[in-house]
Amino acid sequence: MNLFDQIQKIRDNIQQALDSSNRNSSVILIAATKTQNTNTLEDCINNGITHIGENRVQEAVNKFEELKKKNSKCVKRMIGHLQSNKINKALTVFDTIDSIDTISLAKKLSIKSDKEKIQIQTMLEVNTSREKNKFGFKPEDQQGMLESIELKNINVVGLMTLGPKNRDIKETELSFISLRKIKENLNRQLSKDRKLTELSMGMSSDYKIAIEQGSTMIRLGTALFGKRD
Predict the structure, then answer these.
(1) What is the mean pLDDT of the chain?
(2) 154: left (phi over 0), alpha (psi -120 to 50) or beta
(3) What is the pLDDT of residue 184?
(4) In the chain, what is the greatest distance between 2 CA atoms, to the nearest angstrom?
C-alpha cells in the first residue's frame, strides 16, 4: 500500500473513532518521521500531512533545511526528549516543542526565549503510565505543570503522553483518560487566556483508543511508513 492509500486508511480510522465517541471535532495527524529521509517528508506534505514531528534536533535541522530549499512548508514539531544543551538550536528550528518534561526544562526554555525575544508554542509531556524509562511530569505534579504554564514566552497549549509499552488495551485507555482529567483539572485553575486546548496522545498502535478518549493530535510513524529497519 502506498503512502496516499495509507493516509486515506488512517483518516477513515480517525473518522470512525470520532464517530464512535460522538465527537465532531478534528484531529491533527502528525507524521513521526524519525530516520525518514527528506523525500518521505515531502511526500507527506504533498499528501496533506503538514505537521511533521522529529525526535532529534540535529536530524531535524538537516531535513528542514532541505525542505526549505524545495519550498515545502510544514509545521515543525519537536516530539522527542529535548536536552537542555539543545535548547538554543531547537528554538531556531521548531515551530512548537511538544515535549517539555520537567519544570527545569520549562524554565530554561522560558529564559532563553525571553532573551531571544521569541514566543514559542509548547506542550507539557506527562508520564501517565508511570514507566521508569519514560520522560515526563509525574501525573501528581500538577503544581509543577501550573508553574510551567505561567512562565513567559513559552505558550503552553496542551499536554502530551505516550501509552504504556505493553500495549495492554485497558492500561492504555486509563493512561489517556488520566491525561484528559489532568487537563480538565489544570483548566479549572487557569485563567481564560491560559487554558489548555490540546491533547497529543496516540501513536500507531493505539491512536484509535486515544481519539476515543479526547485526543486532538496523534503522532504516527509505523502506521504511515511501516516498521523501521
Answers:
(1) 96
(2) beta
(3) 98
(4) 48
pLDDT at residue number 229: 64
On the question of pLDDT at 13 being above 70, the answer is: yes
Q: How far is CA 95 from CA 119, 148, 191, 217, 220, in A?
A: 10, 18, 24, 15, 19
Residue 11: partners with Cβ closer than 8 Å, 6 or more residues away: 29
Q: Percentage of the chain surpassing pLDDT 70?
A: 100
Coil/strand/helix, residue 28: strand
Containing domain of residue 85, as a range? 25-225
135: domain CATH number is 3.20.20.10
- Cβ partners under 8 Å of residue 197, min gap 6: 157, 158, 216
The stretch 82-108 carries a mean pLDDT of 98
* Residue 137 identity: F
Of the candidates 134, 67, 70, which has an alpha carbon nearest to the alpha carbon of residue 95? Answer: 67
C-alpha cell of residue 76: 515543525
- Residue 228 pLDDT greater than 80, yes or no: no
pTM of the model: 0.96
Q: Does 65 map to a domain?
A: yes
Closest CA to 156 of 203, 109, 201: 109
